[in-house]
Amino acid sequence: MKTKPTLILIAAATLLTGTARAADTTPEHTLTGNLGLSSDYRFRGISQTYKLPAIQGGLDDIHSSGAYLGTWLSNVSGNSYNNGAGLEVDLYGGYKFALSQDMTLDLGALAYVYPGARLNSAPGVATNEKYTSVDLYADLSVGPFSAKLSIAASDYFGLNSQTSGYAYFSSLPARGGSKGSAYLDLNYNIDLGDGLTLGTHLGHLAVKHYDELSYSDFKLALSKETHGLTLTGALVGTNAKRDFYQVANAAGQNAKRVGDTGLVLCIRKTF
């Protein structure tokens, strides 16, 4: 018996419709979040919490096209080197896409915002500049290796002749702004099995016009996935110069070197 052409067309249409519906099950937007507690908040190797604990969390909205927006928050120290800041709010967005089967490129921008904080200035000179910074970045990932370059699109956390004080001392030439400062971030992760990951990191900060503030940092971390949590212990350190990365508390006492080597413990939940 010959099959009628009409029945063939109906069957083909049904099959194609089913395939399209299956493809449509991929959500256009994926919302993820994270919440964690850390024994110290290290940013590029430098403690931002006076070596005290930090509560941190964030949200990310990822579009199926590869575009994304997100925010991340952490408490920070109110000491002078953070210009009175008590909270850091990161706002970022970008586009991540595949270059090949194992290679991806992530291009984006990130703003570091500290509500209510104002920049330091030379003695007796007031400023009303906000303590913020904006980076543009490119992140290339190849398997377990990634290399990220961040370039400051503004003065690096507001650092310039006025806020550094150089312009107010006749014996010191004005340095200018620090826009264009760069941070290179290299990472390599090794899957050890059974939920264990060994993470290695090497970074270098080059502060434009302020070479004495430039330094390199490292991190060696061991992470364990268990019961829906990520537990991490990391050895973090820098070669930052003590004179420029040593701070006291709000009362001007108990100076700590915030860039020396230390152990950082963290527990994090992703949802």
From TrEMBL:
Signal peptide range in chain numbering: 1-22
InterPro entries: CHP02001
Superkingdom to which the source organism belongs: Bacteria
Pfam name, any one: Gcw_chp
Keywords associated with the record: Signal
Name of the protein described by the UniProt record: TorF family putative porin
Organism: Roseateles koreensis
